[in-house]
Amino acid sequence: MLSLAGPAQAELDPVELTFGAVTVTLEVALTPAEHSKGLSERDEIPDGTGMVFDFERPRSTCFWMRNTLVPLEAIFISNSGAVLQISRMQPRSLEQHCVREKVRWVLEFPDGWMAKEGIDLHKARLSPANLAKLEAIR
C-alpha cells in the first residue's frame, strides 16, 4: 500500500474500486494542494494502487507531470461515471493533458497496469458500485 502524503490525506481512508476481478486501492486527493502534489516525487507506484482526484463539482482540468518520476495513465471521468478520456503521461513532462468536457474525478494508475490486468476503460462507464464509492468520498 502507498503511504498517504500530507496531513489532510492522512485522515482519509483509501478508496477501493473493482474492475472485474481486479481491485485497485486509490489514495484520495481533495484539496488544491493535494491535486497539485498528486503522485509526484515518488520513485515507484506499485501495481494495483494509484490516486483519485475528486473535484467536488464537474470542471475543466489539465494534468501534467513536472515532478512525477514514473509514467502514469490518467482516466478522466464525468459526474455520471462516463470515461471521457485516457491519457498516457510521461515522467517530468510539462505537456498538458486536458479534457474538453467537464470532469468530476481523475484516476491515476501506473502506465500500462490496466492493460496488463486486462482492464479496458475506453468508451466505458464506471459500474454503479464504483461510482457510489467515488460519490461517497466527500
Q: End-to-end distance, in Å?
A: 22 Å
SS summary, helix count: 4
Mean pLDDT: 91
Proportion of β residues?
35-45%
Largest sheet: 6 strands, mixed
Radius of gyration: 14 Å
Number of strands: 8
Shape: globular
Which regions contain 5 or more consecutive residues with pLDDT less than 50? 1-10
Oligomer: single chain
Structural class: alpha+beta
How are the secondary structure elements laid out?
Layout: H1 7-10, E1 15-19, E2 22-29, H2 32-37, E3 49-59, E4 62-63, E5 72-77, E6 83-89, E7 97-98, E8 103-110, H3 113-116, H4 128-135
Parallel strand pairs: 2-3
Antiparallel strand pairs: 1-2, 3-8, 4-7, 5-6, 5-8
Concise synopsis of the structure shown:
The chain is α+β, with helices and mostly antiparallel strands and about 140 residues long.
Describe this structure in words.
The chain contains four helices and eight strands. With 138 residues, the chain is α+β, with helices and mostly antiparallel strands. Residues 1-10 have low confidence and may be disordered. The protein is 16% helix and 36% strand. A six-stranded mixed sheet has the order 1-2-3-8-5-6. A two-stranded antiparallel sheet has the order 4-7. It has helices at residues 7-10, 32-37, 113-116, 128-135; strands at 15-19, 22-29, 49-59, 62-63, 72-77, 83-89, 97-98, 103-110.
